[in-house]
Amino acid sequence: MLKEKILKNLNEQITAEHYASNLYLSMSSWCTAKGLDGAARFLNLHSREELEHMHRLINYVNETGSQAIIDAIPAPPNSFKDIRDIFEQTFKHEVHITNMINKLVELTLAEKDFSSFNFLQWYVAEQHEEEALFKGILDKIEVIGLDGRGLYMLDQEIAKLCNTKQ
Ligand code: OFO
Fold first, then answer.
1. Is the pTM of this model over 0.85?
2. Which atom from ligand 1 is nearest to the alpha carbon of 93?
3. What digits encode the pLDDT tens for the residues 76-127?
4. I need a labelling partner for 98 at 20 to 30 A (CA). Which of 2, 19, 127, 149 fits?
């Protein structure tokens, strides 16, 4: 059984991963509506990944004999300024998730819950990858730009990422 404090934080993490999934799904839908098929596919795949992150947490909590709570999540935004706005928001969101994970890891050490500490190492590594991935897209936006054919080229570049990470 997990200590109360740790269970509460793990359940909050479940909700955060669920929200991230919906946020990226909403962004994917916006991209589809704007004809940005590469970015739409990338974000859709990423939305599914976030669901996997959520399920991994649910399984862990339930395996310990505690109960994973599936809580309400707020509606994500559904309108965005442009593709730059989308990827600035995704990067910001990943940094926020990293901070949550780091707080959780700190707590497991303080509570001497080494099993949860060990479980969370996967998320620590994953967050490192995800921040780098989204930062890389922001860098591409800077280099390619959004004017003229830039937007089309950028969408193609983002589409290529679907075959590497996901
Ligand atoms: Fe994109 O992050 Fe989950 O954990």
1. yes
2. 1
3. 999 999 999 999 999 999 999 999 999 999 999 999 999 999 999 999 999 9
4. 2
- DSSP for the chain reads ---HHHHHHHHHHHHHHHHHHHHHHHHHHHHHHTT-HHHHHHHHHHHHHHHHHHHHHHHHHHHTTS-------PPPP---S-HHHHHHHHHHHHHHHHHHHHHHHHHHHHTT-HHHHHHHHHHHHHHHHHHHHHHHHHHHHHHH-SSTTHHHHHHHHHHHHHHHT-
When divided into structural domains, the chain yields a total of: 1
**Ligand 1 atom having least distance to the Cα of 46:** 1
Query: Which tens digits make up the pLDDT trace of 52-85?
Result: 999 999 999 999 999 999 999 999 999 999 999 9
CATH code of the domain containing 134:
1.20.1260.10
